[in-house]
Amino acid sequence: MIRTMVAGLLAGWLTLSCAQAQDGTELYEEHCASCHGEKLRSAGTMPDLRELGPDDRARFDKAVLEGRGQMPGWQGVLSVDEIDQVWDYVRRNAR
User: Where are the domains of the chain?
Assistant: First the structure.
């Protein structure tokens, strides 16, 4: 009985953790927020990611992978799946 309860709690926790990681929030906070602002609210020194439209995906990918200006490239640091997750986060929070 206790094993079943512990297994159920662990499975629920893992599901929640994976869902949070897959929505890009944690990745954005870890890799992007220090420059682009909490919830995309930049202090004005970096491009406002809220302005990115659905058609800006190629531009976003190029900047993330190769870097731009003071921003380093994230190729080899973030996987393609993680970049997809960050893009999804940006689109959910765009204007």
Answer: 2-93
